[in-house]
Amino acid sequence: MSTSPDRLDDLVESMTREEKFRLIRGTVLLEEGRATGYLPSIDRLDLPSLKMVDGPLGVRLDEATAFPASIALGASFDPALATEFGEAIGAETRAKGIDVLLAPGCNLIRVPQCGRNFEYYGEDPYHSGALVSATIEGIQSQGVGATVKHYVANNQEHDRTEVSAAVDSRPLRELYCRPFEAAVDADVGAVMAAYNRINGTYATEHEALLTDVLKDGFGFDGPVMSDWWAVNNGLSAARAGTDLEMPGVGVFELLPTQSERLTPLARLNDRWPDRIPGPEALINAIARRASASRGGFPNVSESKFAGELEDAIETGSFAEGELDAMVRRVLTLHTRVDRSKESDQIHPEEHDVLARTMATRGTVLLENDGVLPLTADTDLAVIGPNVTTAKIGGGGSSEVNPFNTVSPAAGIRNRASGSVTVAQGHPPIDDPSIFSIDIGSRFFGGTESADIRPAIDAARAADVAIVVVQDIATEGRDRQSLALPGDQNQLIQTIAANADRTVVVVQASGPVELPWIESVNATLCSWYPGQEAGSALGKVLFGDADPGGRLPVTFASEGTYPTGGQTSYPGVIGNENVPVAQYDEGVFIGYRWFDDRERSVQFPFGHGLSYAQFEYQSLSLGDGTPPESATVTVSNSADRSGREVIQLYVEPEAPAVDRPPRELAGFTSVEIPANSEHTCTIDLDPRAFAYYDDENGWTIDEGTATVAVARSSRNTQLRAETAIQADDSEDAEPR
Ligand code: GLC
Predict the structure, then answer these.
(1) Does the Cβ of 351 fall within 6 Å of ligand 1?
(2) Ligand 1, pocket-test mutation among 34, 54, 229, 477, most atoms within 8 A of CB
(3) I want to staple 548 with a disulfide (CB 3.0 to 4.6 A). Which of 39, 231, 458, 643 is the partner?
(4) 5-249+317-335 sits in which CATH class?
(5) DSSP 3-state assignment of 651?
(6) How confident is the model at residue 654 (pLDDT cuts 50, 70, 90)?
(7) Residue of 451, 345, 399 whose CA lies nearest to 36
């Protein structure tokens, strides 16, 4: 089917109303295979069907490569790597015969304990925008439509289908909408509207944000699809700018067609009828949970476009022309689909290699007294509750079923030549899943016991103890706190008290508190490293790879974040029983908050150590006021190569409005060989010199500013001052 714009107009022109209805809401997939979402073909018009599948960490359909979590890619600060990842996940999506990937997610990490932070890139809008657009370019280069999600201000899982984000237009435009604007600039195929409300109106019904900002302002020409069962009022949603309701049918219609997914449950139910629910019981439990406490779970019982919207169209109260506009947008998805790129390469080996590279490049070395990198003959104790399992990801729609995994214990054992003794030392930490029927701790309630004694003995006998710990995060609920769950902190303290030297590896979904950091010799944060967790860890621990990551989020103690108070997070029940989260911090998110309030942090945004030794030699600004770029020279005086993330921040001088002390304006991740210098020119984000004003849009005021080149938001190396000319011309709209 040709998908030229004129062809799309002709297609809409030639459709019957029934055919149009079939394209504005998903339906049950009856043909072969499975998908998360499905739009049927219209054979009369030679219009193929569209299959959609999750997710941001890998293709959630049968087995697929389980790449590291998005926050690990965020920690790489490397858009080129993000594009490579996009190409790989796009190729796997294409190879499975899927046309649209329901990824990437790019909500900003406003709430440090948000259950889905692992699916997002970080706390800075420019950084997230650069990574999300690079990912989209990679995905769509494979003939697959990308779906950027969840538009917008979907920053917590607690009450996610009800909470209203009370947020002003300036933070919306300067922070929360910016990564989506970058996604539109990258020609993203679809935008997924979130469950939550913004300023009292559901995202799916928010005309100002969907039509005025996203479509008219950013120029988005594709469809806004709802999150799954996120449409609450079909007519209001369609009028506001939601073009496609997903999944478009109630759960009762969906699940029986996925009965093969319920067969294992049916078998287990046969065997343990009093312990395992049957398929019907499960479906009813889901429906009960959905219609009752809708905090983290939508009402999955029916489609809202069917019925009320279709009636309104039939009666003419919803104009046919508006229906045509919706259909036209949905049809543009086909222009991102290229089935000729279909390969049979569902899982090429280079994707395992890429998953490992992403994991090493995302690993952040927080502290190191020189114990790392290890020498190969070091005798090791490898300890941790889940140390024999690779930490694939968190719970929810982003779950991936990998072909193969390398656990931390296996990866270290494969790389070491000294002795390696493995001990759990702590009962397993739950790996939540809201899809698979977990017959482990969740149903039988059993947690294997793990005596700490063998772990202590192993630590005492080894040269170095490696302790691998992890948090618990899932879609649908937020973490209970920033503390490591269970008694993992105690485990670390006990091991550190018995080992000669101790290295801690934290597998986290976002910021975590590290109370023992002064008692250990080195600490790494590897996020959720994916299927290659162990092979990547082995490479970093033994120095084959420099820990290339830098923190894409601020690590601080829980109560000091801008969301420390109940009204800010998780919000307070207001009128009509709607929980309201006040975004009172305005534009001061993450490091911008901590810098403005001059508050102490455990580790700042952008922080991360290298095994090499970098010195910043020079900084010079390019043409323009404000300058469009900066040229930086960095030397590496170590006898080994190292990876450095060069960061540029703009510090406005006496700004006319309340602005953060510094804002990230540019960055690059570079490998610098031993005993050499590297010079590079980095583009500066013009918006780092501007602020958003309701009257005049993006505004650059006359004045001066400092451009700082830094190793983190709190580790400036060199500064250069620049004059800034006001720019209120039409094209002052810096992109
Ligand atoms: C979920 C998620 C969304 C996902 C969709 C389909 O509730 O919020 O990210 O793509 O449903 O699984």
Answers:
(1) no
(2) 54
(3) 643
(4) alpha beta
(5) strand
(6) very high
(7) 399
Placement of tokens 């004694």 in the chain: 453
Q: What is the pLDDT of residue 295?
A: 64
pLDDT grade for 31, boundaries at 50, 70 and 90? low
| Ligand 1 centroid, distance to 89 Cα (angstroms) | 17
Is the C-beta atom of 204 inside 6 A of ligand 1?
Answer: no
Ligand 1 contact via 498 beta carbon (within 6 Å): no
Identify residue 221 by its one-letter amino acid code. Answer: D
Residues of each domain in the chain carrying CATH 3.40.50.1700: 363-545
Ligand 1 closest atom vs CA 150: 9
For 363-545, CATH gives 3.40.50.1700
Q: What topology is assigned to 612-732 in CATH?
A: Immunoglobulin-like (2.60.40)
pLDDT tens readout for residues 97-113: 999 999 999 999 999 99
Task: Provide the b/e sequence for 226-252 (b: ≥16 CB within 10 Å).
Answer: bbbbbbbebbbbbbbbbbbbbbbbbbe
Tokens found for residue 628: 């469009």
Q: What's the pLDDT score for residue 235?
A: 96
Q: In the structure encoding, which two tokens stand for residue 355, read together?
A: 């998953």
Considering only CA atoms, which residue is closest to atom 8 of ligand 1?
Answer: 227
Give 145-204 pLDDT, tens digit per residue: 999 999 999 999 999 999 999 999 999 999 999 999 999 999 999 999 999 999 999 999
Q: What pTM was estimated for this model as a whole?
A: 0.95
User: If you take atom 4 of ligand 1, which residue's CA is the nearest one?
Assistant: 397
